[in-house]
Amino acid sequence: MPKREPLKAIVIYDPNSNEYSISAHNQDAKEAHRVIKDWNTHPLAGCLLILLNQTERHRTDDPQACRTCRDAAAQSEALYPQARFVRRNVS
Length: 91
Ligand SMILES: [Zn+2]
Hints:
It is a single chain. By secondary structure, the protein is of the alpha+beta class. The chain has one domain. Helices cover 20% and strands 26% of the residues. The protein has two helices and four strands. Strands 3-1-2-4 form a four-stranded mixed β-sheet. The protein starts with 7 loop residues before the first strand and ends in a 6-residue tail after the last strand. Zinc ion (ZN) binds next to helix 2.
């Protein structure tokens, strides 16, 4: 039986404005890898792409409305303190 990999949440962080948004969550490793691979050509490629391991599947359908993602991102050391959440269409 294969070991279950943690699901990932994908956070897009702009260190210049100290703003972040949630691109996706509940991504398996393969899906997350595809996002990373294509990131160079993304319109927001100047921002940092941060992957967070989820401890469980998030129930919210819309990742931009997901409170769990926002809390996890806010606690991540990859973001400066008190980074501001913004909604963005980043898909
Ligand atoms: Zn989430």
